[in-house]
Amino acid sequence: MSTAFVVAGSQFTLTAPYAAAAEITADEARAIAKEATIFGFPLVDNYRVQHSYFVDKGGPEYKADWNTLVNNARVYTPDDKAIQTPNSDTPYSYVGADLRAEPLVFTVPEIDSGRYYSLQFIDLYTFNFAYVGNRATGNEAGDYLLAGPEWKGETPAGIKDIIRCETEFAFILYRTQLFGPDDIDNVKKIQEGYAVQTLSRFLGEPAPEAAPIVQFLPPLTPDQQKTSPKFFEQLSFILQFCPTHPSEVEIKERFAKLGIGTGKPFDVTTLKPEIVDALSAGMADAWAEFKQFKETELDTGKRSSGDSFGTREHLAGHYIDRMSGAVLGIYGNSKDEAMYPAYFVDDGKKPLTGNAQYTLRLASGELPPVNAFWSLTLYELPSSLLSANDLNRYLINSAMLPDLRKDEDGGVTVYIQHQSPGKDKEANWLPAPAGPFFMAMRLYWPKPEALDGRWKAPALVRSV
To answer: How far apart are CA 203 and CA 443, in angstroms?
Structure first.
């Protein structure tokens, strides 16, 4: 039986194996599958999140239709499960942008200089291709135009800047700093000042012809993304909305030998059994390389999260860095916007577990150097989600400093463990699950001494 679906205005029917895939050897297919998995995981995982937010109207994570602003006037909790390693410092706002028919105009209000806010513009590759906010554009009100790859218009009157996206869909993630529970009404007021509209509406002109309806594929689960050959069906589907960048002509040609990214649907059921087996083996090879990369590069500090997020130019073809960013914390900021020192192991290089007890000391005068704020957030493994606890406390951050117990020298010692460290220390307790976990420190708008390495994140010391 053939399967047909409509995408971007064209109808494709799956009927027979691709000629290219039919001629390829199993060894070639395995090598290409490994390369495509490392290259493509961020795209496929991003698609999973975007589908849950903007397509799956009956799902628990659904936000709104495309090109619609959604404000979340609360911080994330363990009940939020779509995005791994979310922050719980800044209420989020979201826009899933479909840029095929026309650009969008983003409006931001004037915001007090003492409050951090940002709009992070993320394309289908998960590149952070632009920012609006304190660091990038200041705190003044303004209108910014976001255009897709096919738009050739002139800058309209009243637009402060044109932001160009190389893919036809994008994700805009807003962060608005919350100083504490009694500050939520102020955040809501700011969020009410955010707005998004089509360019035609902004100009008061008739709307252009609508883009063709897309029949989106059901996304894979996180587990399926690691093992199912249908991963390549999803990747091929997504790539049709990603015009080939000049730097990736050769890699896309290699993918095309396997039938990936050809503009036609990829159907794993049309492939020979030995090729399907090769796809699975190639995926396993990719995840083995990621594991080695994490253990030898990330866990040792040779590479940092700053190497995993940013523009296309910043990533410069380092696809394993981009994959690690998506696996460990998709939608992380570029390092100029935020840094993420991570704690996967303790001072003895052992993985973190709730069976142990740890301290992290922030000495007086050595707090994380930031222009905005810092935080330390704990995530349970293997989900990389916030860990439920009786205190409903998922982080320690700079806004909490007045309420933290100080050491004799004025510094702060944070206690990380499953059981309470005692009533006298609970103000500084970051509850851990009973099992494995990791932590991420966040430095929003880091100062030069953090960016150039003069400041080092303090060691996590295992005490028991």
So the answer is: 39
Q: Which of 149, 84, 161 is closest to 119 using CA atoms?
A: 161
- The CA distance from 126 to 123, in Å, is 5
pLDDT in tens, 41-80: 999 999 999 999 999 999 999 999 999 999 998 888 899 9
Torsion of CA 196, 202, 207, 212, to 10 degrees: -20
Q: What is the DSSP string of 231-276?
A: HHHHHHHHHTTSPPPGGGHHHHHHHHHTTTTSSS---GGGS-HHHH
Which burial class, exposed, middle or buried, applies to 299 when counting CB atoms under 10 A from its CB (0-12, 13-18, 19+)? middle
Nearest to 294 by CA among 369, 244, 251, 345: 345
3 state SS of 312: helix
**For residues 102 and 109, is the Cβ–Cβ distance under 8 A?**
no
User: Counting Cβ atoms within 10 Å, is residue 440 exposed (0-12), middle (13-18) or buried (19+)?
Assistant: buried
Listed in order, strand segments (DSSP E) in 288-350 are 338-339, 342-343
Cα(60)–Cα(56) distance, integer angstroms: 9
CA distance 353 to 416: 10
Amino acid at 278: A
Name the nearest CA neighbour of 70 among 50, 100, 46. Answer: 50
Chain center to CA of 74: 19
The set of long-range contacts for 211-219, using a CB threshold of 8 Å and a minimum separation of 24, is: 211/8, 211/9, 211/98, 211/100, 211/101, 212/6, 212/7, 212/8, 212/9, 213/6, 214/6, 214/7, 214/8, 215/5, 215/6, 215/7, 216/51, 216/55, 218/51, 219/47, 219/48, 219/51, 219/52
Whether omega for the bond prior to residue 229 falls within 30 degrees of 0, making it cis, is no
In sign, the C-alpha dihedral spanning 377, 226, 166, 146 is: negative
- In this predicted model, what pLDDT tens digit does every residue of 135-187 receive, in sequence order? 999 999 999 999 999 999 999 999 999 999 999 999 999 999 998 888 999 99
pTM above 0.70, yes or no: yes
C-alpha 36/C-alpha 231 separation (Å) is 10
> Which parts of the chain register pLDDT below 50?
1-19
Contact 196, 143 (CB under 8 A): no
CA atoms within 13 A on the CB side of 407: 13
CA nearest to 342, candidates 85, 92, 119: 85
Helix (H, G, I), strand (E, B) or coil at 200: helix
